[in-house]
Each structure stands twice: as structure tokens, then as C-alpha cells.
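Support request from a user on the community tier.

User writes: "When I paste my C-alpha cells into the form, the page sometimes reloads and wipes my input. The last time it worked, I copied everything first. Here is what I submitted, just in case something in the input itself triggers the reload:"
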């Protein structure tokens, strides 16, 4: 006997010898097993004509939160009848203590689905077996959206093939070491009424009463993480001085940029697609080697590859005024601290953050006196005193002096001081000559305002003097104006 379809086959063998009465011999044969097979494996049978192994569909490793992954396989039907597959998917949980599944079915177990409606010819013909109870070996729980099949029902025509699409949806989160998911899909076979029962020929069961077509499923999920390595132990730290914007003639440059870099490493087994958002005034300078994608602002790093990312900090006069949007700026010990971030946004909506910090030293000017008293000067004479200005910071200083009268004068009235590097550095300090000319008898009082370019501090120097006609107050160093 040869059969490519399960069922209980019956026939009658009639033996007739001469004129003797024919002898009728009933013949019964039960064929079991599943005629369907996945083309990826072929019809592999053992000596008992049953399948000896189940195919496994591997989805591979993917990042958590990524879009669904689809795999399409082909099912072959060598039998002479159409077979409809109703799919159920399950996930396997380690150390699951459950042994059996008890299935209670009300009505038909697998009605024919037509879009959103249910069409069941058998349900229309008969209402038998209203409630059915089935028991099967427990191997897993319903997988939900983790594993699924593109179409809940698949019709495999006789002596033909059909495509089945399996789907894996990576979960939104996973352990830092990643997760592995195992599951399986069962395709329960249903037949049309006209081929289930052929009077005097064959009767066939279907649904839960026959073995289902099985496909094992396997997938792995890992977090979308890139290894970040900064070039300096202090991290992404930028140290600048406001004086770097100043030219020797006192003009201000449009901008000065300092750069620092970090290394992105993909130590995983899958390509990672990501974008980078950077708080201004930090800017992306370069990415080497180029790992850009077709989408602007998107990058893709292949497994076991690395890329160097160079981030710049752009210093401008506006930046010193604190015009940096939402960026956090603090003033501490005459230094501006800018705190920003590089946000690495993966395509599964997770992100990694790398802190950025820039420290800008502001110009610092020191005046040796707060009050300068010239004493009493003979009318028509001029007396000069010395005032020292210096910088104690690491930024160059361009300073200027303003005053409101012509009784007191300072020379020079502006200048540039270089950064203070050591005690013997002469360019970081300068001597000013302040003069007082007594134009009439009486008391005089005024003030000088020392302004620092790119600095908010204004230093005041108060000056006083007395004019007299008494020649007794004439000093040796005084001279007539």
C-alpha cells in the first residue's frame, strides 16, 4: 500500500474462483503522520516513515526595540488534497513545571477565516461536538507578539506549495548581557468536508486530533550599546581662555574652536544604526572613518568596527555672554563652566549619553590701588604717581581706562597684558602714570574706570588731590604744566 495522506482507509477485496461464490475480504489500513514538510529541510523520514527531526528557524541577533524581523519559508504538500494550516505560536520558558495543556473548544476548533468574518461550512451543516476537550503535552506558553505568523491561516494546495512568513518582534528592553528566546509554531491541519469522509473509502480526522506541522523558532536580543572611550582620562574636557579671541590690536575674532575626540566601538554581532544630538556651542567636527548612512545625520557602525568622533567647542563673544540656549552655564572662580551632552540615539529609541564640559577662563585684571591721594599740589604744577596693573589668570587681558575730567590723567590709557605664567613674567604686568594738575585752589576728586574687554568686571580707582597757592607745598618731583 502506498499513501501520501493520512486517514482510515477501507476497502473490500473480492476473491472469485470459478463458479464458486465470491469471497469478500474487508481491508482496513490506518495511515498516520504529516504529509507536509518545509522545503528548507525536505521530507526527512526515519525507518518508521515518520519525521525524525524538527526544523529550526533562526532569526539571529537583534537589538531590543528594533522593528519586527520576518523570515519566509515554503511548505510543500505532496498529497492529493488541499490542506489548511491554522497557526499557533508559543514561547519556551526555562524550568517550566507545567506538564500538560488542557484545551477546551466551544464549537469548531478551527473555523475558516475570511478576512474579519468567520465562515464555517461544518458549523452550518451540523452542530455536533459543541464542546470539545483536548489534552496535549505542554512545551510552552502562547508567545503573544514575540513570535507570530504573518497570516493566521495558510492554504497549501494539493501537489503544490505555499509560503509562510514567521515574525519575531524584539522586546523593548533586555538584560545588559542580552536575552535568548526559544519558541515554536504549530500548524494544525484542517480539511474540507468532502475529503474528510468518503463513504466506503476513507475517513480522516483533523485539527487537534492529528499531529501538527511544527517549526522551532530561535532568536537573540542584545542591548543597543556602543562602547565609548575618550582620548583623555578627564573625559571630554575643553579648556580655553577668553583672551584667545583677542588680537593684539584689540579686535575680536569671530570664533575660536577647541576639539576633543572619543572612540565609538561596536563589540556586538550586529550593525548598529544611530544618530548624534549635540548641545551647542559644542559641534560635531568629524567622524572617521566615514560611517554615514543615506539618511542625513544617521550613522551605521558594523560589528567589531570602531569610529573616531571629533567634537569641537566653538567660543564666541556671544557664548561668553551666556547665549547658549538650554545649555547649563555656571561661573566659578572667574571661570565659565559649560555643561553639555552628546546624545547617541539608536534607531530603537534608546540612547547613550556622553557628558561634555568646557571651562573658559575669563580675563582677570588687578589694579595695585583702590584710592590714590596726590596730597597738596601748588596751583599750576603737576604731580605724578605710579599705579600697577597686572593679570593673575591664564587669559590675556585687553584693558582700557575712562575718566570724566582733565585734572587727572593716566598714561597709557589702554593696553594688553599677556597671561600670567610665572612670577618673573614681565608681559603680564604694566606700570601706569597717573598725574594730577592743580588748576586752582581747592579740593579735587575723581575716579578712573578700568574696563576689561570680554570681561564684565569694571575696576574703579578713586583719585583725590588738593590745590594750593602756598609755595611751601612744592615737591621736587613736581613740574609746571
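"...and here is what came back when it finally went through:"
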Amino acid at each position: 500500500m502506498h499513501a501520501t495522506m493520512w486517514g482510515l482507509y477501507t476497502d473490500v477485496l473480492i476473491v472469485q474462483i470459478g463458479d464458486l461464490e465470491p469471497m469478500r475480504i474487508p481491508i482496513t489500513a490506518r495511515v498516520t503522520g504529516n504529509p507536509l514538510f518545509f522545503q528548507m529541510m525536505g521530507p526527512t523520514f526515519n525507518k518508521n516513515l515518520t519525521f525524525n527531526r524538527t526544523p529550526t528557524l533562526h532569526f539571529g541577533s537583534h537589538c531590543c526595540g528594533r522593528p519586527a524581523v520576518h523570515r519566509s519559508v515554503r511548505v510543500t504538500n505532496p498529497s492529493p488534497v488541499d490542506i489548511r494550516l491554522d497557526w499557533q505560536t508559543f514561547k519556551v520558558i526555562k524550568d517550566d513545571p507545567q506538564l500538560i495543556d488542557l484545551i477546551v473548544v466551544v464549537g469548531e476548533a478551527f473555523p475558516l477565516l475570511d478576512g474579519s468574518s468567520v465562515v464555517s461550512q461544518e458549523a452550518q451543516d451540523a452542530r455536533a461536538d459543541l464542546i470539545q476537550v483536548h489534552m496535549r503535552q505542554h512545551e510552552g506558553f502562547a508567545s503573544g507578539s514575540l513570535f507570530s505568523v504573518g497570516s493566521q491561516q495558510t492554504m497549501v494546495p494539493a501537489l503544490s506549495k505555499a509560503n509562510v512568513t514567521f515574525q519575531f518582534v524584539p522586546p523593548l528592553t533586555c538584560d545588559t548581557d542580552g536575552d535568548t528566546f526559544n519558541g515554536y509554531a504549530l500548524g494544525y491541519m484542517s480539511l474540507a468536508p468532502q475529503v474528510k469522509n468518503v463513504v466506503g473509502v476513507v475517513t480522516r480526522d483533523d485539527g487537534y486530533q492529528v499531529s501538527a506541522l511544527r517549526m522551532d523558532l530561535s532568536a537573540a536580543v542584545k542591548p543597543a550599546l556602543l562602547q565609548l572611550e575618550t582620548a583623555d582620562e578627564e573625559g571630554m574636557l575643553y579648556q580655553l581662555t577668553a583672551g584667545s579671541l583677542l588680537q593684539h590690536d584689540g579686535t575680536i575674532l569671530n570664533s575660536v574652536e577647541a576639539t576633543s575626540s572619543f572612540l565609538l566601538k561596536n563589540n556586538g554581532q550586529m550593525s548598529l544604526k544611530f544618530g548624534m544630538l549635540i548641545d551647542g556651542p559644542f559641534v560635531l567636527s568629524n567622524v572617521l572613518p566615514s560611517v554615514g548612512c543615506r539618511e542625513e545625520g544617521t550613522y551605521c557602525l558594523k560589528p567589531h568596527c570602531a569610529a573616531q568622533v571629533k567634537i569641537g567647542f566653538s567660543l564666541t563673544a556671544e557664548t561668553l555672554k551666556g547665549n547658549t540656549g538650554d545649555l547649563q552655564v555656571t561661573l566659578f572662580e572667574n571661570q565659565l563652566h559649560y555643561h553639555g551632552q552628546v546624545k547617541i540615539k539608536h534607531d530603537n529609541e534608546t540612547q547613550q549619553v556622553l557628558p561634555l564640559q568646557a571651562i573658559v577662563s575669563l580675563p582677570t585684571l588687578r589694579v595695585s590701588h583702590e584710592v590714590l591721594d596726590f596730597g597738596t599740589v601748588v596751583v599750576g604744577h603737576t604731580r605724578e604717581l605710579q599705579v600697577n596693573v597686572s593679570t593673575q589668570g591664564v587669559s590675556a587681558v585687553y584693558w582700557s581706562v575712562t575718566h570724566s575730567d582733565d585734572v587727572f590723567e593716566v598714561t597709557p590709557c589702554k593696553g594688553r597684558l599677556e597671561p600670567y605664567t610665572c612670577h618673573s613674567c614681565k608681559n603680564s604686568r604694566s606700570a601706569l602714570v597717573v598725574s594730577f594738575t592743580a588748576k586752582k585752589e581747592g579740593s579735587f576728586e575723581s575716579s578712573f574706570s578700568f574696563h576689561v574687554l570680554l570681561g564684565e568686571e569694571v575696576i574703579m580707582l578713586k583719585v583725590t588731590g588738593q590745590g594750593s597757592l602756598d609755595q611751601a607745598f612744592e615737591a621736587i618731583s613736581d613740574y609746571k604744566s
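Agent notes: The reload is a front-end session timeout and is unrelated to the input. Helices lie at 121-125, 193-196, 317-320. Confidence is low (pLDDT under 50) at residues 116-120. Escalated to web team.
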